[in-house]
Amino acid sequence: MQQQEQEQKSTLGSLARELKEKISREEKEKIKETISREDTSKKPLGVLDKDLDKQIQKASEKITKREVGKEIKEVKSKDRNIGETLIPLEDYIKCAVHLGTKVITPHMRKYVYKRRADGLSVINTVAIDEKLREAIKFLTQYSQEQIYLACKREAGWPAVKKFQEITGIKTFTKKYPPGITTNLELEDFFEAELTIICDPWIDRNALFDTARLKKPVIALCDTNNFTTHITKIIPCNNKAKKSIGCILYILAREFCRAKDLPFNAELEDFTGGLE
Q1: pTM summary value
Q2: Which distant-in-sequence residues (6+ apart) come within 8 Å of 142 by Cβ?
């Protein structure tokens, strides 16, 4: 009798494990299917990505004083009650944080308020500042050890290096090792509670792993990005060195302030020269 009960318990335990594994597999496949479906609609964007990068980077380096003044005037006329921003509007525009691509996904349309003569979209600078504040509030709930940042785009590597140096947050450039936060058998496995990515398309391996774990993600999102599985969106130009540097400068500064950590960097330490 006792042996039968033990056998029944063993059978039930095996069934429970099988069910758990099945649910895990189904969830994994569901996430893969969702991302794959979006990747299908994004394939043209992936093919054109290098061209988009070059176009945005070129435009980002040609922000004139006249354009800065014109953009500030337009932003203030659009949002007459605009208050103090995290950095001066002039610095946002000098860094070309507001420049988007010619492609606008349905997910990002609400952050765009016009197109330039060359077809590039323009992201509302006030919206950038507002969403940055939301991301900062969320980010500062976590400690350095609970966070990592992934940036595969080369333009962002200098700023990412500075970000890690100042905040102590783990970062990945060049290549994020898939499974490093989900596969216990990997030697360099580690646990994280929050992921920051610089582009949902380029850094999709980190996004995919985080989605599997059902953990939150903060992402820099350009107008050609989809935002599925992203918790906090920072709408911005995520193609150019100065723009990525500007966003990471603000995140690092506010994180250090919230955690009472020393912060002696200047904006140009993250972006390079702005003049």
Answers
A1: 0.83
A2: 193, 194
